[in-house]
Design a protein that fits this description.
The protein is 73% helix and 0% strand. It is an all-alpha fold. It has two domains: 53 residues, Homeodomain-like (Arc Repressor Mutant, subunit A, Orthogonal Bundle), CATH 1.10.10.60; 134 residues. Helix 5 packs across helix 6. The longest helix has 22 residues. It is globular, with a radius of gyration of 19 Å. The chain starts with a helix and ends with a helix.
Length: 211
Amino acid sequence: MAKRARAKRAGPLDRVIQATLKLAAQQGWRDTRMSDIADAAGLSLREVHEVAPSKLHVVSAFLRKIDEQMIAGDDPTLAAEPARDRLFDVIMKRFDLLNPYKEGVVAIFRDIRCRPLVWAGAWPIYARSLAWMLEAARIDHGGLSGLLRIEGLGLIMLGAIRVWQSDDSDDMAKTMTFVDRQLTRADGAVAKFCRIAGPGRANGPAAEASS
């Protein structure tokens, strides 16, 4: 009864997101149509269109939901920690939040990354989430140096997703090891770029590591 009550309380957008992830896992992202999503969500096409006119709109809504959960319970005192540690914690928290939807997320990722035109449309959505990850880690993402950080974090996340998709351990040990290694490399590679922003703010893992 409790599960049935929760299902009834789910709004149209949540139902669309849940149906989309389930269908992507079952039949692939490319073969999932908006009409399939409507049928699986128990909604009319018009109702689906009102909340998500396209599959990329569904992805955007899902990532926004993850972003909101990621920044919930934000602790300002963490700003005293090294930037690299803050970013590591944010990345792993995000994977914790994605874990319940892993099969669907992986199916979407596999398809989008192999379709340049779709990826071009998805990049602004992805970049928005990357910016919020840096914001949650108290790392500046403004200006040219901020753009470099967003793109650098994007590359780290893409690699981490590839590891995460086959990481069956309860503690995501393989994923954590990969992220830790990549952040260590980024500290050295990005340090010279981070310094151009000047002192006074948390400009990134490399900048703080060198201070």
